[in-house]
Amino acid sequence: MAQSKRIKTDVVIIGGGGAGIAAGIEALDQGARALVIEKTAEPGGAAIASGGGCLIVGSPLQEKAGIRDTPDLAFDDWMKWGGPSADAVWARYYIEHTLHDLYHWAERNGVVWVDIKSQEGNSVLRWTRAENSGHGLMTRLIASFRAKGGEILADTAVTGIAREGDRVTGVTARSRDGEIDIAARTVVVATGGFNSNLDMILEVRPELKSGRVLEGSGAGANGDGHKLLRGLGGYFTNLDQIWFYCYATPDYRDPAGRRGLAFRLVPGYIWVNQQGKRFHNEALSGGATGAPALLAQNPRHAWAIADRAMLANMTVADPWYQTGETANRARIEELLENSPFIHKANTLAELAAKTGVDAGAFVETVERYNSAFARGLKNDPDFGKPLGASKPFDTPPYTAIQMFPLARKNFGGVKTDLRCRVLDKHFEPIRGLYAAGEVAGMAGGHINGQNGLEGTMLGPSILSGRVAGGWAAREAGFGEGFVGKANRGCGMVLRERIELSTSPLPKKRFL
Ligand SMILES: Cc1cc2nc3c(=O)[nH]c(=O)nc-3n(C[C@H](O)[C@H](O)[C@H](O)COP(=O)(O)OP(=O)(O)OC[C@H]3O[C@@H](n4cnc5c(N)ncnc54)[C@H](O)[C@@H]3O)c2cc1C
To answer: Which atom of ligand 1 is nearest to the CA of 191?
Structure first.
């Protein structure tokens, strides 16, 4: 039998996405050796295909735009939007650390922040985008990790976490060349979510088995880390809280028929259900508004209706159709032409026949919507959609894109303390084991609650990656742990607060 290859390091990190690369940078900055194991051919994870937007409070970009934001205001928005199940301690911790430990830290690692955008649930603009979106953000963080001496083993999947006595001691992995044993002082699990594993989605949401649900995260988001952590006794919370998007259609190139494609920038489109009727204000399209509206339809799908002019700038948030800010128009046209889930017709009646919707109701719906423009209304009279950025349906051919709920982000995950140590069912840390990012519900287990303000997935994944990397390095014998700088106050005071709130049996109390 072939001998497995052996490697030794200080901190081994499973997954080279947003959390894993941030963990690696932090561990290196603390003086430890850091090795990232990535199962796909290239590092980046869902983060590299993402919009690259992070919720950041009190940023120079906000200041420049004359926006006054504070951690208190952001926390208030967060808890109102996320509801009682949001992890208030982690939410506060994240918000307090967005300016120095995310915005400025990323800048020091080469990232350029370029603009801020409005998102549902926020009382001010704070969704802050990196230049060239997730691609720009991750390309620069990966380059920084490598420049500092970090190593990435790509095309290599971790298949097990080794444990001796009560502590973890490394991982086993499989590459094309065979098995690898990696001995490490500490292990960071940063494997992302499970929204590219339909079986796991339906296991936690069995009521959705009755209709089509699309897989919608990165290629490696298959829940591997969840299985590894469960095997070690990690305690999971709120796995059923999945953030769905509604503006998604099946990826007809996927032979398994499971993957979905989220499409955007179709201003003015309307959504109709199989009964041929509108059911929602399409301007409210987020996970807390548009997605529940789609999930409530019977049957559970809808049709996005657009005319030719409305489709001119459509984008598809998937690496095949878009790299960073650059959309591949030829591939988008090919999708519109060839997908069996997309129909085109020169008249509304013909489109109704192709989609099988109730023709009478459908034509009446579109004509009624068009009449709002003729009457000079500012909002549509049925659902209140602002009509400023819209137009009547008047440039055939008309297109109908079939929409199904797409599982994008996992809001629940493994529970950790504020050092990102993985907790067991007694809420005691498993020695040597850390988790960050989406496998930990973005940070701590369930930072968002039931709804996210947006930018609250990538941002907390990167910050919790830093926290995990810092403390994993310290447990491995390097550095001081993650000592951040809050938006207010100084790092030392903050560190004392961490000691108090994360130690399972504190020996001394800080007042
Ligand atoms: C298209 C899209 C757009 C998004 N846009 C935004 C946005 O603008 N703002 C926002 O806040 N959030 C956004 N998100 C969500 C955000 O990108 C993720 O929540 C975030 O990337 C999670 O970071 P992570 O490091 O935990 O996981 P990932 O970035 O997915 O990285 C996990 C990595 O682990 C690897 N891995 C998994 N299993 C193994 C294994 N067994 N062995 C080795 N490696 C393994 C995976 O291949 C992957 O590379 C978006 C998501 C998608 C899919």
So the answer is: 34
